[in-house]
Write a structure and sequence with these properties.
The complex is a heterodimer of chains A (247) and B (432). Chain A has three helices and 16 strands. Chain A is α+β, with helices and mostly antiparallel strands. In chain A, strands 2, 3, 7, 8, 10, 11, 12, 14 and 15 form a nine-stranded antiparallel beta sheet that branches. Chain A has a six-stranded antiparallel beta sheet with strand order 5-4-6-16-9-13. Chain B has 14 helices and nine strands. Classes of the chains: A alpha+beta (247), B alpha+beta (432).
Chain lengths: 247, 432
């Protein structure tokens, strides 16, 4: 009895400290409360930076075009003008839930087209569903009116006993035959396409198709882009926030 | 008894194997783990028996376990104050809370009863090996297999080891130790409190993985020492942790705070070390020039906190890197301009006549939020002394070697004399 009394005071102090910190975190406007959800051990959906990407037709080969993928702590970059026809594939690496994409040295004449491919995997233990997709342009926002996109995404099952996945569903905004869409609508369309899907543990939303096929995100600078934008670059982030699925 | 340990291990391994091989869809994704772990929990409870659990129960150890869990949660919240918080990804409807509570509680109950039975049946002579192996086994059961099997870069492997494997192992070690001293209720009290906070709190601290790893490894280590302190030396002796001689020595020792003092020193040293590297979200820097006089004097310490670029305003003192420089610069912002989609910041030292070359926001480290006067002189004096000694050794190598040799010889002589002192005294007393 004597020992337990001795523990009551420090325990109360620690609980009080925790409560004060928590209350402060809840109410203050000074404190950083991210709009996104926190990844935990059981609910954990990650983008995997695979490094497969492509440069589209119509891009003059002499035109240097570079492309960066930066996902949280993992940074990978390639010079597409050199590696486009023989792309290296660095080993897969868990990244965060945000991709930072830089499309640089854009060439307004004809059209310049680049694509990015990446899978989003549920490495947690419980089902997840998309809560929001946030598109933020960090630099080069003046290019937004001239930038178009299309994307295709495939939903694959968890690996079976032999390590293979089954295609469960796919979505495609359109490629060559369908006009590209306005860049600032990308996050809305990604969300509306994926929000109804439940991503079970080990399942994948894959943006990993070949050029022009289902399963990738492609960007194009339209041919009517004014000449003053030649050589400019645009950097933006795509954040995928997931939450628990509970029917 | 060891046969019983095998019996409690089988249901746990069976539940783990079923859930690793079979991944059901829909609501069964929740119900199958609850059913499997619930069945495992009931089986191990039946094998172990409630009387045993009551017999093993220790109120002091359980309170220590609760305190350790609360301390760990408080430390994470405290770290969140310096970094960020985020919304919980879990659902909070009454049904979801009920399902989630069952989902995270059943494996803890099953695993902790089996853990306690296994560690209690371990031979006393090999108790430390038993703790280590049991902790390892339950670490591998806790972390999903997919985290181990996915190919990773060296950086990602380091992150996995630091952020997942090591903290889980530290928590598993503590849980095993608590189960040994206070039975399954003590280890359940520790692990369940941590899980309950993670699953039931609407806002969660979201510090960098480095800080999470530090807290999740350091606090269990503190819990380990606290658990040892919370029981009598003879209890530790009974479990094979210490010898009879050590128990008797500890029982008669008047100064109880030795390990606590070492713990305090170790924690302070770790926090200072991590703090100085900037891993805790703030970075102390020693002012080495007078360009910011009178605000910052040489020898002051400026504490910088990582700041979003949009929160930097004219008048703020910021820290930034300039290309080609070997150390960051701390100057005041006098102008912020935006051109061609890029934000440029112009800074100037308070004592300087001219502004610096403009920098971009990507070069900034953060904003200075605290100035500690003069403390940095200790570091400057130490650095000066070390560099003076180093340059002296470089310039007078032969003299330095002779001095070091003489000092070593004198030390060896003193040690030899000290070691023989009791023997000499005894010889004198015996008249020899």
């Amino acid at each position: 009895m004597k020992v337990s009394k001795g523990y009551v005071l420090p325990m109360l102090l620690i609980i009080a400290l925790g409560a004060i910190g928590f209350g402060y975190a809840w109410w203050t406007e000074q404190l950083v409360i991210n709009p996104g959800t926190v990844n935990t051990g059981d609910l954990n959906v990650k983008i995997v930076a695979t490094g497969t990407q492509w440069g589209g037709p119509g891009m003059p080969l002499w035109q240097p075009l570079y492309f960066h993928i930066k996902a949280s702590n993992v940074t990978a970059s390639w010079d597409l003008s050199k590696e486009i026809y023989n792309p290296p594939c660095p080993p897969g690496a868990w990244a965060g839930n945000t991709l930072t994409i830089t499309i640089g040295n854009l060439y307004p004449h004809g059209y310049t087209q680049v694509g990015i491919s990446f899978p989003v995997i549920n490495i947690g233990t419980i089902p997840a569903k998309l809560e929001s997709v946030v598109l933020t342009v960090t630099s080069g926002s003046e290019l937004v009116p001239y930038l178009k996109y299309y994307f295709g995404v495939k939903h694959y099952s968890a690996r079976n006993a032999t390590g293979h996945r089954t295609l469960l569903w796919s979505y495609f905004t359109g490629g060559e035959s369908v006009p590209f869409k306005d860049f600032d609508e990308l996050d809305d369309e990604l969300y509306s396409a994926l929000s109804g899907r439940v991503l079970m543990p080990d399942e994948v939303f894959s943006f990993d198709g070949e050029e022009g096929e289902e399963g990738s995100i492609g960007f194009r600078l339209i041919g009517t882009t004014p000449n003053e934008f030649e050589g400019k670059s645009i950097t933006f982030t795509l954040t995928f926030n997931f939450k628990q699925w509970n029917a | 008894m060891r046969f019983k340990a095998l019996h409690v291990l089988v249901p746990v391994l069976l539940a783990y194997t079923i859930l690793t091989l079979y991944k059901p869809a829909g609501l069964m994704a929740y119900f199958l783990p609850i059913i499997c772990w619930g069945f495992a929990a009931l089986t191990v409870l039946w094998v172990c028996g409630t009387e045993k659990i009551q017999l093993w129960f220790s109120k002091t150890v359980t309170i220590t376990a609760l305190l350790t869990a609360t301390l760990q949660i408080s430390a994470l919240i405290f770290a969140g104050l310096f970094t960020s918080f985020g919304r919980s990804p879990y659902a909070f409807t009454p049904t979801a809370i009920a399902i989630n509570t069952a989902y995270f509680s059943t494996p803890i109950i099953a695993m902790e009863i089996s853990r306690a039975t296994i560690i209690k049946s371990c031979p006393k002579k090999r108790i430390f090996i038993g703790i280590a192996l049991t902790a390892l086994l339950y670490t591998f059961i806790t972390i999903p297999l997919v985290r181990f099997t996915t190919p990773k870069t060296p950086a990602e492997t380091a992150k996995f080891l630091g952020s997942e494997l090591l903290p889980t192992l530290a928590q598993s070690l503590l849980a095993t130790y608590l189960a040994l001293l206070g039975g399954p209720i003590a280890s359940i009290a520790y692990l369940w409190t941590l899980k309950a906070f993670e699953w039931l709190s609407p806002i969660l601290p979201n510090p960098d993985w480095t800080i999470k790893a530090l807290i999740s490894t350091l606090i269990p280590a503190i819990g380990f020492i606290s658990a040892s302190q919370s029981v009598t030396p003879f209890t530790l002796m009974r479990h094979g942790i210490i010898t009879r001689e050590e128990a008797t020595r500890r029982f008669h020792r008047t100064k109880k705070s030795t390990s606590l003092s070492w713990m305090a020193i170790a924690i302070t040293a770790l926090i200072l070390l991590w703090g100085s590297t900037g891993l805790l979200g703030f970075q102390p820097s020693i002012i080495a020039s007078g360009s910011m006089r009178p605000t910052l004097e040489v020898g002051d310490i400026a504490v910088t906190v990582q700041t979003r670029p949009e929160n930097i305003k004219v008048g703020d003192i910021i820290q930034y890197w300039r290309q080609g420089e070997t150390a960051p610069i701390i100057h005041r912002v006098i102008q912020i301009e935006r051109a061609g989609g890029i934000t440029y910041i112009v800074t100037k030292g308070d004592a300087n006549n001219a502004p610096d070359e403009p920098i971009t926001v990507t070069q900034t480290v953060g904003k200075v939020v605290l100035i500690i006067p003069k403390i940095g002189w200790i570091s400057i004096a130490l650095k000066t002394a070390i560099s003076t000694a180093a340059s002296y050794i470089q310039n007078n190598f032969a003299v330095a070697i002779t001095l070091i040799g003489l000092a070593s010889a004198y030390s060896a002589f003193r040690i030899h004399k000290f070691r023989n002192q009791p023997l000499n005294k005894l010889r004198r007393r015996l008249g020899r």
